[in-house]
Amino acid sequence: MTELRAVTADIIIKLDPPLESTLNDGTPVLVRALRLYADDGGRGFRLQSYKGSVALRRSRDSTLWRKAFHYADDLMLTPELERKIDEAMSMTQANTVARNS
After folding, report:
1. Which of 99, 90, 98, 89 is nearest to 10 (CA)?
2. What is the per-residue pLDDT across 43-99, written as a single tens digit (0 to 9) for each?
């Protein structure tokens, strides 16, 4: 009998340099890292959720960012952030296949 195992992944991607994006309410943020949660249902890893480590602007009209970062789960994905997520998911899948071979 084949044993079925649930495989999950907690993936952290550091963005260097950080990327600008917005929260769902339109607030501009600077994204320093992405934290991805994925699971493997037997057909490859699928993204379940993500959060961004973000900083807000110092004031409404400022071009400077605050030094404090916090995780936000209402982050709008830019094409660049989506590309970073796709790369991380592909690498996670490849590493899992290589480890299990």
Report:
1. 89
2. 777 888 999 999 999 988 888 999 999 999 999 989 999 999 999 888 888 877 777
Domain residue extents for the chain? 7-100
Name, in order, each residue with C-beta under 8 angstroms of 48's C-beta and a sequence gap of 6 or more.
Answer: 37, 38, 39
How far CA 39 is from CA of 4, 57, 58, 66, 67, in Å, comes to 13, 34, 37, 34, 33
- CA-CA distance, 67 to 49, in Å (whole number)? 25
Two tokens at 48? 């379940």
Amino acid at 35: R
Q: Is 22 helix (H, G, I), strand (E, B) or coil?
A: strand
